[in-house]
Structure formats: C-alpha cells, structure tokens
C-alpha cells in the first residue's frame, strides 16, 4: 500500500468514526500497516492545559502494574515533550529521556516516535509509538506529521460532540470529592464519594481503581512543581475570554474594582461589564460565589 493510499484510508476511517476512542483504535490498526510499532499510548489532551485525558494504550502486560510510574516519568521527561513538539520526533539520544532511562529500556523499548495533534484552537492529543528493536526512519516520521494534520480536525470534532446535554435525572449530589496522591502517584487516601466519581472517567468495561486521566492531572502537578513544565494541571471550561480570565486572577487576590481597573488599564465601568459577563458564563451572581466556584468549593 502506498503512503497516499494509507492516508486516504485513514481519512475515511476518521471521518466515519462516531467518537474519539473508536477513531483512535481504528487509526492505530491502519497505521501499523505503514509504520510498524510494538506498543502505543494515545491520550486525548485538554486543549488548554495539554494534560492527558481519555488515554488509549496498548502496552506490554508487564508494564500495566507500573502505569502510575509510567505516567509520572512521562510528565517529568523534557525530551520530545508533546507540549513543545513542533513535528514528529524519535529518540535521537534515548539515554537523555527520563522515561526511557528509568523504565522503558528495561522492557526492551529501543525507540519512541512521538507526534502531537495541535491546531490554532489548542492541543487535542499526542501519540507515542514504541518499537522493540530498531529505530523509526525519517519517512515514518514524515508520515506521522501528515497523519497529525489529517486527524487533528477529526479529533477536535469528536471532543466537541461530547458536549451534549445530559440526562438531569443522572446528576449526582455534589462531593466532597478528594483523591490524595504522593509525588510517586501512590494513593494515600480519598473521600467516600471519590470512587463513584472516578468511575465516571473510565471507559466502559474498565475497572481500574484510579483512572489514568486522574494520574495525568497529578503528574502534571508534579511536573509543575519540578519546573519541567509551566502548564496548569486543570482548567475550568466556562468559555472565559482572555481578559475575563485575567480579571478573575486579579479578583482572586482580593483586589477591588478600582485596583483591578488600574492593573488592567481599564475604566471601572469596563471592569464591571467584564465581571457581569463572567457571572453570566459561570452561572454566579456575586464575587463570593464566583471565587467559590473557581476554587472548586461550590
């Protein structure tokens, strides 16, 4: 099969996929015919923070018990990090990669090809392909770049399709919900309602006590604490504009309208207009309620 034919098939597969997991599973099966690999990790990412969500992975069984450590090391690794990649890349110097040095090489991995699915709207996914024996060639990396350009809009479509109005009868009472992990992503404790909420993050048929998506958030927090990456681990999807987000940050410091206006070089009336827009978008009616929601306490 020619590379052009493979891309055509992948495009048709992606366009027909009803949701992201089906898209990625079908695409991996087709991709393996052009770029052979022995294992793959393909999570979606939050478009604003680039933190992994809804991971899809096919890795050696011996690695499954080490999933939290794999995620932790991936987030602490600066080599070919998806947040900075501008094109598909392989491990030119494997020993420079923390995740390869500390874990992957012990399982026979000799090279990793990485590609990110990003557009002007944000980062939607990244893909790591592992090879056990040999390295990835230049034409294979070039094909992965074409794949990223082809599939990024389809992945974005699948994510957008998730935002459908749900059944209000299935709404659960609010928390408190807390999962406490140490720096090694080992579970230290959790509140009684946590297991129920975490189960909602798991794909059907999977029964892990802590979803990989939760480990990804914790791993990004560890990465921030270690100075590896400055991206925040979480973001709230309220559709705030850049200036509205800036105003909210000033508000969280306790600043009043006059102080915020001076800091943002705006009139006090404009600050109030921005604040009204934020109230509308977040479903709040006061600064106190807004800050409570932003802090996750309401």
Automatic annotation (TrEMBL):
Keywords of this entry: DNA-binding, Transcription, Transcription regulation
GO MF terms held by the record: DNA binding
Biological process, per Gene Ontology: regulation of DNA-templated transcription
Protein's UniProt keywords contain Chaperone: no
Signal peptide (from-to): none
CDD domains, per the entry: LuxR_C_like
HTH luxR-type domain: residues covered: 233-298
The UniProt record lists the keyword Oxidoreductase: no
Full protein name: DNA-binding transcriptional regulator, CsgD family
Organism of provenance: Asanoa hainanensis
């Amino acid at each position: 099969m020619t590379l052009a034919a493979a891309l055509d098939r992948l495009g048709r597969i992606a366009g027909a996929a009803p949701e992201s997991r089906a898209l990625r599973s079908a695409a991996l099966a087709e991709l393996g015919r052009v770029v052979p690999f022995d294992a793959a990790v393909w999570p979606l990412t939050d478009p604003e923070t680039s933190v992994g969500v809804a991971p899809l992975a096919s890795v050696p069984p011996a690695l499954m018990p080490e999933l939290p450590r794999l995620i932790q090391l991936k987030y602490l690794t600066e080599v070919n990090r998806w947040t900075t990649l501008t094109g598909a890349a392989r491990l030119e110097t494997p020993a420079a990669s923390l995740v390869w040095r500390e874990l992957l090489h012990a399982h026979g991995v000799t090279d990793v090809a990485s590609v990110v699915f990003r557009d002007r709207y944000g980062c939607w996914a990244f893909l790591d392909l592992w090879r056990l024996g040999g390295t990835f060639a230049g034409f294979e990396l070039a094909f992965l770049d074409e794949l990223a350009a082809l599939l990024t809009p389809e992945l974005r479509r699948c994510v957008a399709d998730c935002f459908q109005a749900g059944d209000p009868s299935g709404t659960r009472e609010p928390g408190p919900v807390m999962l406490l992990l140490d720096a090694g992503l080992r579970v230290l404790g959790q509140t009684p309602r946590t297991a129920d909420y975490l189960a909602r993050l798991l794909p059907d048929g999977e029964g892990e006590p802590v979803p990989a998506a939760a480990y990804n958030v914790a791993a990004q927090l560890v990465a921030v604490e270690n100075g590896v990456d400055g991206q925040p681990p979480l973001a709230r999807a309220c559709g705030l504009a850049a200036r509205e987000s800036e105003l909210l940050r000033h508000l969280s410091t306790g600043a009043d309208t006059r102080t915020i206006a001076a800091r943002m070089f705006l009139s006090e009336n404009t600050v109030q207009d921005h604040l009204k827009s934020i109230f509308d978008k977040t479903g709040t009616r006061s600064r106190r309620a807004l800050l409570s929601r932003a802090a996750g306490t309401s």
